[in-house]
What we know:
The complex is a heterodimer.
Chain A: E1 4-7, E2 10-14, E3 19-25, E4 31-37, E5 43-49, E6 55-58, E7 61-66, E8 71-76, E9 85-92, E10 100-101, E11 105-110
Parallel strand pairs in A: 2-11
Antiparallel strand pairs in A: 1-3, 3-8, 4-5, 4-9, 6-7, 7-8, 9-10, 9-11
Chain B: E1 5-7, E2 10-13, E3 19-24, E4 31-38, E5 42-50, E6 53-57, E7 64-68, E8 74-78, E9 87-94, E10 107-108, E11 112-116
Parallel strand pairs in B: 2-11
Antiparallel strand pairs in B: 1-3, 3-8, 4-5, 4-9, 5-6, 7-8, 9-10, 9-11
Amino acid sequence: ELKVEQNPLFLSMQExxxxxxxxxxxxxxxRLYWYRQDPGKSLESLFVLLSNGAVKQEGRxxxxxxxxxxxxxxxITAAVHDLSATYFxxxxxxxxxxxxxxxxxQLTVNP
Amino acid sequence: DSGVTQTPKHLITATGQxxxxxxxxxxxxxxxxxxxxSLDQGLQFLIQYYNGEERAKGNILERxxxxxxxxxxxxxxxSSLELGDSALYFCAxxxxxxxxxxxxxQYFGPGTRLTVT
Lengths: 111, 117
């Protein structure tokens, strides 16, 4: 059974600081997704990572994928309050179709 | 706006009752997925339909059932409701979704918040 683990689960950081969220998964996959969720809202797609070594950046967020290590990272640069949300990574097994989600990382950026 | 619509937005009902949640996928998408988000279980996959056929099943209770209609909209039926069924139910859609190395993205609807009292 595919397991996806994120850490940390809770992250409180100051504006202007950098931090990394980690996502480990337990079985072969070449498709990894990062989503953002604001309280009570839907899931907003941030990044789709489809191959080993893939790196994508959007604003202050950068995501990478290492399929050999079964690890993805979401790096936050110079955090701002608007980034406060819960971030999920999700994985689809090779030749599967369902998303298996991590537990989510609740990020709070304090002024 | 993802293009996926779900109705109703909120639903409050009593234990033992039955409800139906509705989802319309993005135009052109053939797959519909249902996910449940609760504090206890996190985000869990329930079931997938592809062009009217059930394609994959996850942690879906026997009291729950779903179907996808010829116009590709989908309904999730929840019966004999229990307090523990209170959750956010999301529908997602994608272009592909059949078995195989297709690469695609799932787009999520706004969700239906179900409260069972």
